[in-house]
Amino acid sequence: MQDPYTGKASQYRMPAGGRGYTRVPSLISVWSTAPLLLNNTLGHFEANPDVDSRMRSFNDAIEQLLWPEKRAKDPILGGTGPSLIDRTTQRSYLRAASGFLPDPLSKGTKVEHMLFPWLFSEDGIQIGPIPAGTPVNLLANLDLMSDSTNRWDRIQHNAQVLSLIIRLKHDLEKLPPDATDDQIRQTFAGVEPDLIKFNKCPDFVVNRGHYFGTDMLPDEPGLNDADKKALIEFIKTF
After folding, report:
1. Please, are residues 91 and 132 in contact by the beta-carbon 8 Å criterion?
2. What does the alpha-carbon distance between residue 117 and residue 113 come to, in Å, rounded to a whole number?
3. Quick one: 199 exposed, middle or buried, by C-beta within 10 A (0-12, 13-18, 19+)?
């Protein structure tokens, strides 16, 4: 995984025994299903369902698949390989209703709103302002409620998440009313390690993966350009 701001690479161990696993799709008629990858990030989208439009989308997608250097680059990370991260395009806010908050806040926050209006709304928590360019999944994938079956683990997790939210809200409240996006980014930079710690999927690059036939696999050489083009024509017959 890569830090969404610095590009620094680090290792992340995928947890076992939970959600997040998918069944490998069939390659039958794959030419008709582009853009490719499970999140449809490879290849431009053609709205028309005719064969010519499907083939244009597929040709663009399959070339990005087999030549990763052609994939879209993140405006901040850049680089030569896949690096695209979904980022906010304007200043925004994240609202979490009380039912999605850890206990005891999941029962409702009207009392908390009366006592701490800077932290709670009447039905949850609002986090913001969030500056443009923030990775969407930095906040959207926050694990607000633990999946652990151990009661003590859940209590610890919920307490740590609540402490993080309070710290972030407190830091944002200290910003001036006319704060710039750069000032807000500095506030998020102070809590970014903890936001990633409680993230369900901290690898934010959306066009990474599926490197068969490329030079990006450590244990096998990639195909040459002629073989890649022949493979593309063969896949079209599926």
Report:
1. yes
2. 5
3. buried
Structure tokens at 166: 């309070």
Question: Is 123 in contact with 109 (CB distance < 8 Å)?
Answer: yes
Question: What separation in angstroms does the CA of 207 have from each of 82, 165, 171?
Answer: 6, 30, 33
Residue 165 CA from chain centroid, whole number: 19
Question: Which three-class secondary structure state does DSSP give residue 69?
Answer: helix
Mean pLDDT for back-to-back runs of 10 residues, the chain (238 residues): 81 69 81 91 93 95 95 87 90 80 61 60 78 90 79 85 84 88 88 87 90 88 94 93
Angle, CA of 200, 201 and 207, to the nearest 5°: 160
Contact 98, 124 (CB under 8 A): yes
End-to-end CA distance of the chain: 34
Residue matched to tokens 């066009």 = 207
Q: Which of 36, 32, 65 is nearest to 48 (CA)?
A: 32
**What pTM, to 2 d.p., does this model score?**
0.78
Both tokens assigned to 62: 């399959």
Buried-exposed string 97-132: b where 16+ CB fall within 10 A, e elsewhere: ebeebbeebbebbeebbeeeeebbbeebbebebbbe
